[in-house]
Amino acid sequence: MEYRRLGNTNIQVSALGFGCMRLPEYEQDGKWYIDEEKAIPMLRRAYELGVNYFDTAYYYCHSNSESTVGKALKPFRDKVMISTKIPVSEINSTEEFWKYLNESLKRLDTDYIDFYHLWALNQNTFRNKVLKYNLIEEAMKAKAEGKIRHLSFSFHDKPEVIKEIIDTGKVFDSMLVQYNLLDRSNEEMIDYAHEKGLGVIIMGPVGGGRLAAPTNLGEKLTGEKQSTYELALKFVISNPSVTCALSGMENVEVLEKNVMIVNEFEELSPSELQKIKDSLEELKKFSELYCTGCNYCSDCPQNIKISKIFQLFTYYNVYDLKEYARKSYQEYLKNEKNGQVSDCVACGLCESVCPQKLEVIEELRKVDQILTN
Ligand code: SF4
Ligand code: SF4
To answer: Ligand 1 pocket check: which of 344, 352, 362 to mutate, most ligand atoms within 8 Å of Cβ?
Structure first.
């Protein structure tokens, strides 16, 4: 297993981390439980194989993940890093910081959390929760008391907001963001964080499973016989600004496969990386429908999530993830909050704001037909 120094700390973290949000679960009498007979040996196997970074959160696995992770890692607690997250969006007072922290410590059955994340920050929660309720100051007190060792944040918003958060001051030791072959929007900010001395932990390195689907994308991008899944993981950990890629491993087979990829991994050279990036751009450019996902059209009065639908078409058409795209579209249609293409009243609002000058109304109809066939 390869270990990397995490930002400006002296901690060595395994290049593969365990994302504990998909531990095996079962339902009984309307209540969810983690199948600990499977989950605990799997987490311990990960440790044996060299994984030393375990990432959970207050609400993962119906709020049961933390206690299973704590139980599994107890025998070698001082050899591993435990990361967990506080649900910032639910906080309505400074005191609540302590309620969540103490509850997480109790569930994890530990005296300290190695990396305590302000969970899923965006500009709104950063300004109206973190700054408003002085959560950074409270975290610094918790650090002084030894209850947390490092403060971190996870993030879901426009990349430029990352800069605003990091520039708050030297308070964060690491950040957790989305990054993969299909979504490189945070790439520049990943470099920025690295330059500023933060460790960078990546979630979704295989696109939340999208890149695990059978596809010839790997071959398309490299011109060689190459598994897309393997390429996706290699792509993320070859980025010199990345410390660790988290994988939400559901069973020992996936764990062992990931460990093997990381162990046998030969870093992609800067020119190989560049070739892949160029190919991705080329693939996108040759897409029939070049929607940049800017979301300027998000005010559709019929609630049609235009960029989402076009993104699925890109997966279908450009990345060859046909099965995934069709399935995701079915899920989109099932969600009552989403407008259906047949609801479009042709008001033209979307077309009037689209910087790509797309014929949105017509394209939506075409895509709907393709994805439902
Ligand atoms: S034309 Fe259709 S898709 Fe576009 S904004 Fe109007 S209702 Fe929405
Ligand atoms: S405005 Fe145009 S380019 Fe932007 S998300 Fe909507 S359809 Fe795509």
So the answer is: 344
Last residue of a domain, one of 272, 294, 314: 272
- Residue 168: its pLDDT value, please? 86
Ligand 2 mutation pick, 284, 288, 290, 294, max ligand atoms within 8 A of CB: 294
CA of 49 to the centre of ligand 2 (A): 45
Predicted local confidence at residue 213, as pLDDT: 72
Domain count, the chain: 2
**Which atom belonging to ligand 2 lies closest to the Cα atom of 353?**
1
* Rg, C-alpha atoms of the chain: 21
Whether residue 154 is found in the same domain as residue 199:
yes
My answer on whether 347 and 264 are in the same domain is: no
- How much is the pLDDT for 160? 85
The answer as to whether 242 is a domain residue is: yes
Q: What is the pLDDT of residues 28-62, one digit of tens each?
A: 998 999 999 999 999 999 999 999 999 999 999 99
Which ligand 1 atom sits nearest the alpha carbon of residue 339? Answer: 8
Residues of the chain with pLDDT below 70 are: 286-287
- pLDDT reported for residue 182: 79
Which ligand has its closest atom nearest to the C-alpha of 342?
A: 1
CATH of the domain at 161: 3.20.20.100
What is the extent of the structural domain holding 76? Answer: 3-272
Q: Provide the pLDDT for residue 7.
A: 95
